[in-house]
From TrEMBL:
The chain crosses the membrane at residues 7-28, 40-58, 70-90, 96-120. InterPro entries: Cyt_c_oxase-like_su1_sf. Keywords: Membrane, Transmembrane, Transmembrane helix. It comes from Mesorhizobium waimense. This is Cbb3-type cytochrome c oxidase subunit I. It comes from the Bacteria.
């Protein structure tokens, strides 16, 4: 499995554990104020990261490109900035942290655009000599 796939899958599992923990905390405390953060952690952190990992596992040539690892780093950074801030904003009522949420969201958006570039870009076609030719 390509390294970027493995990283996305491992990161997805971490976010799944965090999302489940927050869900359990909300259920036990009967305080569901943070449910949007819980949903974002599960959808963006767990599901989307796993989908990215699956895409790269199915497209190893694209996974081998440097931009795939840039995508991973950018997306993970965006989530790490956005999700805790979103939780604090919603669960603790800390509206002053909203600019941090917005910054994280913009980083995530940039990462998604990066992934779009990866998906729509052509991969080089290997030649008999092992050198890469022009993209398909």
């Amino acid at each position: 499995m390509p390294r970027v796939s493995e990283l996305f899958f491992k990161t997805a599992i971490v976010f799944l554990i965090v999302g489940i923990a927050i869900g359990l905390h909300m259920a036990i405390s009967q305080d569901h104020a943070a449910f949007p953060a819980h949903a974002h952690i599960n959808l963006l952190g767990w599901v989307t990261s796993a989908i990215f990992g699956g895409y790269y596992a199915l497209n190893p040539a694209k996974a081998a490109r440097r931009i795939a690892m840039i995508h991973y780093g950018l997306y993970t950074l965006g989530l790490v900035v956005m999700l805790p801030a979103l939780y604090l904003m919603l669960a603790k009522g800390n509206t002053a942290i909203e600019p941090v949420v917005a910054t994280g969201s913009m980083i995530v958006a940039a990462a998604v655009l990066t992934f779009g570039f990866v998906v729509f870009s052509s991969e080089p076609v290997p030649t008999a000599s092992g050198l890469k030719s022009a993209p398909r």
